[in-house]
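Morning run. Coffee first, then this:
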Amino acid sequence: MPTPLEPPDSHRVNAALGWLDLGNPREAAAELAQLAPAVQAHPEVLEARWRLCAAERRWADALAVARAQVTVAPDDPTGWVNQSYALHELRRTAEARDLLLPKAAEFPRQSIIPYNLACYACQLGDLEEARRWLRRFLQLRSKDELRRLALNDPDLRPLWPEIRVW
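And here it is:
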């Protein structure tokens, strides 16, 4: 477990996340630019940077940040999920799946992992594998939550008719 960020860096990261939640990546970037050099590799800073890259759809940069997350905190599923998502957005979906697949067993309580694996399987044309991952998701979350997420996710469009009646 890393040492928590101290003020003022913790305040700047929180402000950056707030700006991102408000849809203002420019202000988020300004907050992150003020961080001390010594905290640049802190997991909380890396997560904020990844979210900024994602908000700006800079997927190659997001991938680089996620790889740093995996290096700094390999026991945290966040970096693994971020890495695979960035790869998927870069149209490297098979690689995204291959890197995330072993993490499903390593982090069995993280519902985002089977959900993302379902998306990747669906996009790779393996609908049966996608169904298996969605059933795994349902072991952790409700059908209502699955419908709310999946029916708004174009990656799962081929399964929408089935998901509607689950």
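The chain has a mean pLDDT of 97. Good start to the day.
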